[in-house]
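Here is an idea for our session: we take a single protein and study its fold together. Which protein we use is up to you, so please pick one and set it down. Once you have written the record down, we can walk along the chain together:
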Amino acid sequence: MPRPALELADIFREYGPGYRQSHALPLDQLRVMRAIEICRTAALGGHLEQCSHCPYTYNAYNSCRNRHCPKCQSVARAKWVESRKLELLPVEYFHVVFTLPEPIAQVALQNKTVVYNILFRASAETLLTIAGDPQHLGAGIGFFSVLHTWGQNLLHHPHLHCVVPGGGLSPDQQRWIACRPGFFLPVRVLSRLFRRLFLEQLQKAFDQGQLQFFGALEPLQEVQAFTPHLEPLKEAEWVVYAKPPFGGPQQVLEYLGRCTHRVAISNQRLLAAENGQVSFQWKDQSNNSKVMTLEVDEFIRRFRLHVHCLAPPLVCNHFPASTNSSCVSNLHPLERKPFPP
């Protein structure tokens, strides 16, 4: 793939110094911006590479290897996908998405570690409970969850992608139980259990003093404000979306590679950065391609919303190792828990 004419690093190099002077940024976000700016430049040094078929050599600058850098994902993605090939099963795979409603998303923005851990746990318990119910599948399932916090317009939109094989192990773990072709689990049942579990765990976190509120959300520090804030959400329909099954194992791998090693915006979507504005491509809810132009300060602010240096892992795996398995929400990114033989 040819190098894009415009890169995120170019925008940060030109406008980053001024932005940092006018905004008080936490150290982790300063480090991310700096890493992207100097990625594959002389600032990081370099190494000598040689053609495996001839004496030709050339100097190559080192990468920053920051997971928020658009240039540092392709090689890591290829290696990761290659190591996952042997783990795919010869069955249908389904894509289930859990989305947080806007009032919860606002709380999540100020309490990333707590709320995103709840999102992983509540979605995992929902899938395990409904799949284990004999009225639905009656099996112990394994699945793979990836957190995304952005929409195409770079605004805050936290949601969890789950890739699930179409079946699981029987309670005695001696046989495979397949779901109905083309249908995994009822979405409405998943949605309502997820809503209840999430709100219960969020209320518990509040009661234990784990949540903090600032700015417009500061009144929620009082129980007289926080509990009523959640009441309307107990009746609202939460979005749990089950997409059609993947076409096959290869399609699963392609999706996983894009999903697990994705940043808020790729260099390929950037169109222009001039006169203090940034233009980029995005797609609306109808999948129509459009162009959005933002003031550079707003563009950088939106990108910063999705820098999660201190947040929990973006990747979570749950594979049943025993009948008492629990969600592996605190695994190091890309660490795996083996599927039982």
